[in-house]
Structures are given as structure tokens and as C-alpha cells.
Amino acid sequence: MTPLYLLIAISLAPVLFALAAYYLPSLGLRPDESNAYGQLIEPQRSTPDASALALHNLQGEAFDLQSLRGRWVLLSADESACPESCVRKLFILRNSHASQGKNVERLARVWFVTDQGQPSAQVLEAYRGTHMLRADPRQLAAFLSPGAVDNTPEQAVKNGMWIIDPNGNLMMLFPGDADPLKVRTDIRKLLTNSRIG
């Protein structure tokens, strides 16, 4: 009779463990809500249309961010002089993009240039394939960092990297000094687990 009770106990153990984890969170058995490195943006914000965020490429042609719908879009923003912190963000996003193997076509990269200067030839060459778009820092901050619009919008948009999902929603923020491997891992998880884009 003992083997039967043992078999029943072994069969019920996972169910009891799951119930305890769910109904008794004080036990610390429940996993964190998110194991992402990047900060999920809640509520998500839709990509603004051209009237709220006027964009032009470096040749002065109008660009509609909505044209990238259907792809995961990796964003950074900085002035055209692109100091070391700017280059680091561009590098992280380029390498995170390039390392996605068969999913590389599901991604696009955007660098918002927040002034009227011309990026150096070295930066233009190193980050070829990135959409380089001029944007007004106030309009950009209203989208990326709404809490900072009244203070220092130029600085607020320099302090992070963002992801827009294929439905056109701003959904994740990484710090400007993010760990490149963790950014790449988060992007890989998004692509692996998503059925869109």
C-alpha cells in the first residue's frame, strides 16, 4: 500500500507547489512579473503621425515613421556630432540587430538626429543601414519621454534606447549605458516569442 501513496504524493506535488506559488505570494515562489532587462513602457504609446513628429532624412526628404510598421524598430537619439555615448548606443543597436540570424529582416534601426548638423563620414559609414532622421527634440521627447518635455527634452531623448513593436507601439526602454549582451538577449526573446513582425 505504501508505494501507492508515494505515487499519489509524487503526482500531486507539482499541483500543490503551483497552487502555493499562486495563492501564497508571500512564500516568494512566484516568479517576477517580467524577466526582461529593458523597462516595459506602460501604457504603450502609439507612433505619432507626421503632424506630431515631423521627420526628414539627412537629404531633407520627409519620412513617415509609420512606414516601418510590421517590423521591430530599434531607436536611439542624439546630436549630429555623436559623442562617444551616442556611438555606443548606435553600436549596441547595430550589433543587436546583426546578431539575430534569420530574424534580422524583422528589425529596422532608427537614429533620430536632434539638430541640423551633419554626422561625420565615419559615423555614416559605420552605421549604414540605420535610418538617420532629423527630428525636433521637443516633438521627439513628447513621444519618447513625455515627462521631460518641459525641462530638457534634448537630454531626455539622449538617455535611452527604445523599441517600437510591429503594431507601431513604443513598448520598451533601455538605459543609454545598457549592457549590450542583455539588450541583445531581450531583442532575441521578443523575436522568438512574438508572432507579429
3D structure, described in words:
There is one protein chain. The chain is an alpha/beta fold. It has a 7-stranded mixed β-sheet. Helix 2 (84-98) runs parallel beside helix 6 (180-193). The chain has helices at residues 2-23, 84-98, 121-126, 137-144, 153-158, 180-193; strands spanning 39-46, 55-57, 72-78, 107-113, 131-135, 160-164, 169-175.
Kindly state the percentage of residues in helix.
25-40%
- Rg from C-alpha positions? 22 Å
Shape: elongated
The fraction of residues in strands falls at: 15-25%
Strand segment tally: 7
**Element order: H for helix, E for strand:** HEEEHEHEHHEEH
Cα distance, first to last residue? 56 Å
Order of strands, main sheet, comes to 1-7-6-3-4-5-2
The number of distinct helices, counting runs of at least 4 residues, comes to 6
Which residue ranges are poorly predicted, with pLDDT under 50 across at least 5 consecutive positions? none
Question: On the 0-100 scale, what is the average pLDDT?
Answer: 90
Secondary-structure class: alpha/beta
For the largest beta-sheet, the strand count, sense and barrel status come to: 7 strands, mixed
What is the element layout, followed by pairings?
Elements: H1 2-23, E1 39-46, E2 55-57, E3 72-78, H2 84-98, E4 107-113, H3 121-126, E5 131-135, H4 137-144, H5 153-158, E6 160-164, E7 169-175, H6 180-193
Parallel strand pairs: 3-4, 4-5
Antiparallel strand pairs: 1-7, 2-5, 3-6, 6-7
